[in-house]
Amino acid sequence: MNHQFRKASLSEIPQIWTILEKAIQRRKEDGSNQWQDGYPNPEVIQKDIEKEAGFVLTTNNEIIGYSAVMINDEPAYAKIIGKWITNEDFVVFHRVAITDDYLGKGLSKVILNYIEDFALSNQIYSLKADTNFDNLAMLHLFEKLGYQYCGEVYFRGSARKAFEKVLDKKDNH
């Protein structure tokens, strides 16, 4: 498949929201409380895109995935209960979601690889992320891709597991 990972545009919010809505529903069906409190929502996506942090994964110009990708932009991470591996610049990503039709094809991994490339292209060698303790798919992916568990961070009153991956300065995919 011919994938592209690029900045999203405001006109794409409806397609992105459809993908996230279904992901929210899947989390609910899995018995998770992640994303069950009215967040994320279309306004969140709009803010991502307005600050140039909203990215889409496409194949043949069809949007099949979404993630927010930011540099040094996560205040909650300063209050980690635990310890980050590095205190350098970092890329943080949130809201990774894949459309229903493409689940189980390793596309979250594709997005995370693109995010590594994005970090390296900005001379940043640390990726930080968090997920719910019951999001087994994401926990498994972090483990598979070499992320290390660093502790807990809190969002809207609930704990998330926090992870960091330090990239090799010579690393290129």
UniProtKB/TrEMBL annotation:
Entry-linked CDD domains: NAT_SF
Pfam families reported for this sequence: Acetyltransf_1
InterPro entries: Acyl_CoA_acyltransferase (IPR016181), GNAT_dom (IPR000182)
Location of the N-acetyltransferase domain: 3-170
Gene3D superfamilies (alphabetical): 3.40.630.30
Protein name: GNAT family N-acetyltransferase
UniProt source species: Flavobacterium pokkalii
